[in-house]
User: What shape does this take?
Amino acid sequence: MIAVNGRFLGRSVTGVERFARMLLGQVHDRIVAGVEPPRWTLLLPPGVAAPPEWPRFSMRTVGRGGGHAWEQIHLPRAAHGSTLLNLCNSGPVAPRRSLTVIHDALVYDLPENFSRPYRTMHRTLGHLIARRSQIATVSGFSRDRLAAVLKLDPARIPVIPNAADHVDAIVPDTDIVAQLGLIPGRFLLFVGSFAPNKNLPRALEAFARVAQPDDRLVLVGAAVKSFAQNGMDDVPPGVILPGRISDEALMGLYRAARALVFPSLYEGFGIPPLEMMQFGRPVLAGDIPPVREVCGDAALYVDPTSVDSIAGGLERILRDDILVDDLAARTAARVDAYSWSASTDDLIAALAAI
Assistant: This one.
């Protein structure tokens, strides 16, 4: 039997939670089709609703409270006798028969990005989980970094990649483009936040250098208050913040944008570039190993530590139609390399090996 840590179902959906939802959705579809036995049980903290879209999963609310206390005390008791699956970076240190997906090594590689209590807890938790159970991750880069910091054999860390074919089931809201006063094919898109590894301040400085009056950069995920928190008085000219938008609206922006700007300093995988490529649109990306692993030759790479390099890349992606068309033509091969179905195969194989 497989018990699934359902703590993530009580959180907002980011890349990590989407990973869990997509894989479990695939597993559920296989149970319905009769190709996967009904051996899966979701263990939920009190107050977290059972997902109605997964009726073929067994679901149980267990223990008391929530958060890390629930995860460390009540979850392992409820999972006793089963293989415990933790899909979202953390899990109990007690059970030895478990698989925990750790999505990146950011807390080890860039600890200054986190508060002291957070980094102390998660670094310690990672070491304990690595000693007592099986871990997996989402990219070859993250596998190698986790192996180095946790002192593991990389060959013993399965890779279960992210994918982006979930966008095929989302109907794009094309009205968002006109609502924001945008012209299809004439604006750039950034999907992220002011988290230090996303490198947004450098991207904004670079855009300000090269932007012409009609150029626009749409920031999805960055709030207006974040500018003041990061020492910026105002939103720069030509930069648009649509606020919180639906998945449908985001798909509408992906489809209409000229390119995605993804100048990250650090990623474990990088889902937005792959989502953008689902629409046949190119990416301007920071030249870091995990992004090269995902994007291959379908991106224009820049030095993410250099505003000059980012500005040069933005100038090319904004003005060179031949370059944009060439990069766009290469996206299909990258998209075909990843699917949630293939990743579910990897997950089931990793569980079988425990």
User: Anything to note?
Assistant: The first strand starts at residue 2 and ends at 5. The chain has two domains: 2-163+339-352, 169-336.
